[in-house]
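As a warm-up, study this chain.
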Amino acid sequence: MKDQIVVETEELTKKYGSKIAVNRLNLKIKEGEVFGFLGPNGAGKTTSLLMFLGLTEPTSGKVEVLGFNPARDPFRVKEKVGYLPENVGFYDDMDARQNLQYIARLNRIPDEVSEKRIDYWLEIVGLSKESTQKVGTYSKGMRQRLGIAEVLIKEPKLIFLDEPTIGLDPDGTNRMLDLIQSLSREKNITIFLSSHLLDQVQRICDRVGIMINGNLVAIGPIDELAKQKLGVDQEAYTLEEIYMKYFKEA
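Now compare it with the structure written out below.
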């Protein structure tokens, strides 16, 4: 893992009227890491993500993504960043290859370039054999893996994932988690993961941040948070125990 910072915020704040959705967020995400962003519904995670993607402007403070201000240079950010929402949308009457080709053209990737990328990423996500099958017949897990391929077509340096394993069976979950880890370890792609499934976060994330009521109340490697909050030196803990300790004290 390199020390280059790909996401950095300084006192980042978002208000909706008198309500503070995100309060003075200070955050640094390193290149190549898998970062877990945790918190209950309404904690400010989605609002933070919208500011990172340039989909809403901060009330105050600063944010840089890959060296760009998302509010001022949203297209530069979108060129280099991938985003996989919880529910991925596709054209169900088209097959996987056709869907990916369509996305590539929207991103102005030449066909001669995208065809090679499509073959490569379909193989990586394990959908080569099903590539000519209508996406409407795909299972939830297959759609999620196709969503990863769609995100990777433009070869992003940073990927935001929102609940990527929700609704997947155990095999689909394991495939997705292994894929996320391989993107970080083998491709040096930074993964910013938002999830409520804390056992999965503990399995794959290098660091986590915990948001509660708009505030970042903890950030760091899970073992360090365990020492700080639980006084545990060995791996006799779960991320859920750490999370609940912060939650109850907030």
